[in-house]
Amino acid sequence: MMMKPSPAEEALFEAARNLATPRARQAFLDQACAEDGRLRQRVESLLAAEGAAADFFKAATAFSLRDCLSGGSELVAELAVDLAGAVGTRIGRYKLLQKIGEGGCGVVYMAEQEEPVRRRIALKVIKLGMDTKSVIARFEAERQALAMMDHPNIARVPRKRAGRIS
Amino acid sequence: MMTAAPPSQSGPDTPADAQDITLVLQSLRAGDGRASSELLPLVYDELRRLAAARMAQESASQTLQATALLHEAWLRLVGDGDRTWQNRAHFFGAAAEAMRRILVENARRKARLKRGGGLVRLDVADLDLAATTPDEKVLLMDEALEKLAVEDPEKARLVVLKFFGGLTNQEVAEHLGVTERTVERQWAYARTWLFQCIQAST
């Protein structure tokens, strides 16, 4: 059961963590928490967690939006539609050349891939606001079917990989 | 005779929102507390636009820092306007909160895509905290922050500025009108408390 934050805890935690040695901290807590074993326990558990907490948050404050906002062709496709994905728009390394079809769940563009090789592909952009579950399921089925084909003229659909469009 | 376009606020490059934001900030300075809730959606929209535009442009090797985005939004929206510290404080408070929502929404959406639809219930039972992805961190943090906000809204605001806004202790101190020492103390305690809160749920 999580304890509520309290000013007493905060003050003691602050004082204790700024003491140089574990011995000094113990001595301090002996004195400050003489009457209150539970408070002492709380402060000690905070002190024990302090390092891990700092690490957890340090890495987090430097996080990159790319990691959080990208992460799969579906999400970038949604963003592209958000941008009113018109011809000429770039999505990652794909540039939309022309619309070649429109289905129930999205629009298919001819797109140009620039890296690692330059080639034309068909890129399906899923519309926002559709019934996501069935759309994604169908998209996934298509992706798997495509993945099984290995023909030079059929684009290899990028595998989902966190943080990047491949 | 040709007349030059009026400078800054209504030039062709000024987003329409900049004018709205200026008005809202003026209301806030005049003491109109209701204006705060108007600020958030304006800033939110701008941040989403900026983020999406940057995402489309940046090459794969570059990263996009949340802080940089906030500062860019600040310059775009209030650059030539009234940059008093009160305005800046209001703006960054709203911007950090907006960033939180954007990131949480995206993290949830990605989790939904992975699961193929339905409600997101973050399964934290097997989560190794040392190895959380940025997405998982965002969601865990958001949940824990909600709990902290109930008990101590002031600390929760500080955490939003630090974690989602990426502001330095000094910047937070300026925004909240407290000493840097106070920020350090509260940040150390709040993040430890939050970490334990997250641990307790895993």
Task: Note down, in words, how this protein is organized.
The complex is a heterodimer of chains A (166) and B (202). With 166 residues, chain A is an alpha+beta fold. Chain A contains six helices and four strands; from the N terminus they run H-H-H-H-H-E-E-E-E-H. Chain A has helices at residues 7-17, 22-32, 37-61, 65-69, 73-82, 132-148, and strands spanning 90-91, 94-102, 106-113, 119-126. In chain A, helix 1 crosses helix 3 (37-61). The longest helix of chain A has 25 residues, at 37-61. Chain A starts with 6 loop residues before the first helix and ends in an 18-residue tail after the last helix. By secondary structure, chain B is mostly helical. Chain B contains eight helices and no strands. Residues 1-13 of chain B have low confidence and may be disordered. Classes of the chains: A alpha+beta (166), B mainly alpha (202). Chains A and B meet through helix 1, helix 3, helix 4, helix 5 and strand 1 of A and helix 2, helix 4, helix 5, helix 6 and helix 8 of B.
Summarize the structure.
Chain A is of the alpha+beta class and 166 residues long. Chain A contains 6 helices and 4 strands.
Helix count of chain A?
A: 6
Distance between the termini of chain A: 44 Å
Shape of chain B: globular
Would you report the number of β strands of chain B? 0
Which ranges of chain B are low-confidence, i.e. pLDDT below 50, for 5 or more consecutive residues?
1-13
Low-pLDDT runs of 5+ residues of chain A are 71-85, 128-132, 159-166
Strand residue content of chain A: 15-25%
Per DSSP E runs of 2 or more residues, the count of β-strands of chain A stands at 4
How are helices and strands ordered from N to C of chain A? HHHHHEEEEH
Which bin fits the share of residues in helices of chain A? 40-55%
